[in-house]
C-alpha cells in the first residue's frame, strides 16, 4: 500500500483566526500536516502555540478559515466529516470530564458502542467493554462496576482511554493526556498506549503533549508549533537528536526525558 493510500488525515495551508474587529487575531499560519494509518504523530509546543486549535481543525471540531482538510483522501465536509467524528476517539487532560459521575465505569466505556451500534446485543457490548478495560490494565471485574469517584486520577484516565478506543476508531486524539497525572500513574498510561498500538496497528494517533519523555516513547514523528506556525517536523529520533530551530532547542533544553 502506497503512502497516499495510507493517508488518514491531511491538512494543507491551514489558517485560523479568532475574534472580530481589532480583537481579531490569527492563531494558525499556513500549517501543513499529514497523518498516516498506524502512525503516532506528536504535536508539541508551548502554551498558546496552537496545538489544540490545530487538532480540533483536523478532526472537524472547528473549521479552518483558510486551507483544507482531507480524511482518507476526501474533503472534510458533509458525510465525510460525520464519518470522521464517528471514527475518532478523544482523550483529554481531565479524565473526569469524559466519565459521567452518575454512571458506573462500564456504562461510560460502553456508551460509544450503544451510540454507534444500537442493534448490538448487551452481551456483545459487555464483551467489547471488557476487552477495552483489559487493554488499559483495568480488570473489568474490579473496575466496570465502580463509579468515577472511586478511581484515582491515573485509573480514571485509563478508563477514559478505554472509552476512546472501545469502538476501535481510525483516529485517536490524546490532548495532554498525562499533564494532570502523577509520575507513577503515567507509566501505566504509557503502557496502555503501547498496548493499543500493538493491538490496533492501523490506528492513527495524534498526541498533543509538552512532555517530551512521553513523546520520545510513543511518537513516530514530531510536529513543532510555535505561535501558530510549524517551525520543525520530522521523525522523532531525528528531531530530538538534531533540532534545527532555536525554539525546538529551547523546548528540549527545558524538558526532562
Automatic annotation (TrEMBL):
Q: Name one GO molecular function term.
A: ATP hydrolysis activity
Q: Which Gene3D superfamilies match?
A: P-loop containing nucleotide triphosphate hydrolases (3.40.50.300)
Is ATP-binding included in the keywords of this UniProt record?
Answer: yes
Query: What are the EC numbers?
Result: 3.6.3.24
User: Which top EC class applies here?
Assistant: hydrolase
- The segment(s) forming the ABC transporter domain are 9-252
**Name of a matching Pfam family:** ABC_tran
InterPro entries with a match to the protein in the record: AAA+_ATPase (IPR003593), ABC_transp_ATP-bind (IPR050319), ABC_transporter-like_ATP-bd (IPR003439), ABC_transporter-like_CS (IPR017871), P-loop_NTPase (IPR027417)
| SUPFAM superfamilies reported in the protein's UniProt record | P-loop containing nucleoside triphosphate hydrolases (SSF52540)
Regarding protein family, the annotation reads:
Belongs to the ABC transporter superfamily.
Output this protein's name: Peptide ABC transporter, ATP-binding protein
